[in-house]
Write a structure and sequence with these properties.
heterodimer; A: about 230 residues; alpha/beta; Rossmann fold; B: about 250 residues; Spore Coat Polysaccharide Biosynthesis Protein SpsA, Chain A; three-stranded mixed sheet; globular
């Protein structure tokens, strides 16, 4: 018996029902998700709580927000990098299925998150559409990864509040061959001690990353009540 | 040449801590050694002035618990209290001021020195360590006791010096920094640092080995050193509880 929170169950149901064209006739994703929950409970017990935190209505809202705005901008990225993408259970399928992205890199520091992300995204890993690489993006450059699957079109960081300002990442990666679009999310919610870099709004988020060409800037109150900011730009 | 180092700055600990540590070392080390104290108030010939070049990167308002000045010990060009460089064959044993030494410190100088040694807090649940890794919490390492040979910690010093702004912004403590960049909780034998084995060092406030030997405030004289540091206390505040056990 797998102990999944009601919130995660609802978020999972919403996720699958939001993409019927993808999941209606193919039961593999549902089976992989089921197995991912079972395996996490059995072999990664210490990750159950964080998996529940990653599988909420708010998490789904914020990831769908990205896809919606990228589509509104008529962007069609082929290679996407997730900076601290965690389990990437929502975002990777949304980008691959809804936006027809060719390949997704997830740059993570947590080895358990890597393993679990492979369980949720097994089919994409098997198809060589998804790969997770263990690294600290604020200390090591990622631009050399372009050699394998091509230049990054979009770089997404949905957890800027947990990291040093994004200007540092850009300084480390001046040799990126393309001119990637950055999608950045953060919050002003500073009551959590791991929120080491909260911002007051999307303007400050863009400023931290030294974005000059702002294509989208917005604020959303998530289901949890958290205020979330997002900027898209170069 | 064996060297025992300690460090004192500010008012958290009074001078009696340094004197008591020196006394404990002299009573519990059967091999020759020199005792040195890095201090912001150098007065004696075994005192070494603490450099201040990293001070500007420490933001006390962040509420972090950064014993960042310990990093100075890792400089390969470390100068001793005589104003001379330490000889190339120097070995260093760093001890926090709030420790109780139970056994012969010769043990630490005799350890194989293929890698530097640091306290692996065996009282930590490794699953909690992994669970909180990305949050920079629940570090498995404790820098209260470190052993290295001259030059061996140079990569750590160079790394801090190269990235001070990010290091100080991101890591809540020196222990946390070391655990993230120089140790791997998933591959504990593969890190740059290696942990002292179980049975060497325990914590007065946290216990010994998770989960079976976690009794707090218990003296274990069959171990080598007892630590008193307590990351849950306010920075700069010390309870002096150790003085009752000296």
């Amino acid at each position: 018996m797998v102990d999944i929170s009601a919130e995660s169950l609802v978020a999972t149901a919403m996720f699958f029902s939001s993409s019927p064209e993808v999941f209606f006739d193919d039961l593999r994703p549902a089976k992989e998700w089921k197995q991912a929950f079972v395996d996490t409970e059995k072999h990664y017990t210490h990750c159950c709580r964080s998996l529940a935190s990653a599988t909420t209505i708010s998490q789904l809202e914020s990831k769908k927000w990205i896809v919606n705005e990228l589509q509104n901008l008529n962007l069609e990225p082929k290679v996407v990098g997730l900076l601290g993408g965690w389990y990437s259970n929502f975002l990777t399928p949304l980008l691959l299925e809804k936006m027809k992205v060719n390949f997704i890199w997830n740059f993570e520091i947590d080895r358990d998150a890597k393993d679990i992300s492979y369980k949720f995204n097994k089919r994409y890993k098997d198809q060589e559409k998804y790969q997770c690489h263990i690294t600290d993006i604020m200390f090591k450059e990622i631009w050399r990864k372009e050699e394998k699957y091509g230049a990054f079109d979009v770089l997404i960081n949905t957890s800027c509040e947990h990291m040093f300002p994004m200007r540092r990442f850009r300084e480390l990666n001046t040799e990126l061959s393309g001119n990637p679009i950055y999608v950045l999310q953060s919050t002003n919610e500073d009551e959590y001690d791991d929120h080491i870099n909260c911002v007051n709004g999307p303007e400050e988020l863009a400023e931290q990353a030294e974005l000059t060409d702002i294509m989208y800037s917005g604020t959303k109150i998530l289901d949890s009540g958290m205020k979330r900011f997002m900027v898209i730009g170069k | 040449m064996n060297n025992i180092l300690c460090m004192k700055w500010g008012d958290k600990y009074d001078d009696s801590y340094v004197e008591k540590l020196k006394e404990q070392c002299e009573a519990n080390c059967s091999v020759p050694f020199k005792f040195w104290c890095f201090t912001d108030k150098p007065e004696k010939d075994w005192h070494i002035p603490i450099p201040t070049i990293l001070d500007k990167f420490y933001d006390k308002d962040r509420g972090f618990f950064w014993a960042y000045r310990k990093c100075y010990m890792f400089r390969p060009d470390l100068i001793n209290g005589d104003g001379k460089s330490f000889p190339d064959n120097s070995k260093f044993l760093f001890l926090d001021l709030d420790v109780i030494i139970h056994q012969d410190l010769k043990y630490f100088f005799d350890l194989p020195n293929d890698k530097p040694w640091i306290v692996r807090g065996w009282w930590n649940d490794i699953h909690t360590v992994k669970q909180n890794y990305a949050k920079h919490k629940s570090t498995p390492l404790n820098s209260s006791v470190i052993v290295w040979k001259k030059g061996q910690m140079m990569p750590v010093w160079d790394h801090v010096l190269k990235h001070p702004e990010v290091v100080f912004f991101t890591s809540p403590s020196l222990d946390n920094y070391l655990a993230h960049h120089w140790y791997d909780p998933w591959k504990e034998d593969d890190g740059f640092l290696q942990g002292f084995p179980q049975g060497d060092i325990y914590s007065w406030y946290k216990g010994n080995v998770f989960p079976h030997d976690m009794e707090k405030k218990k003296i274990r004289e069959d171990h080598k050193i007892c630590l008193f540091n307590n990351s849950t206390q306010t920075e700069g505040v010390n309870t002096d509880e150790i003085k009752e056990l000296w």
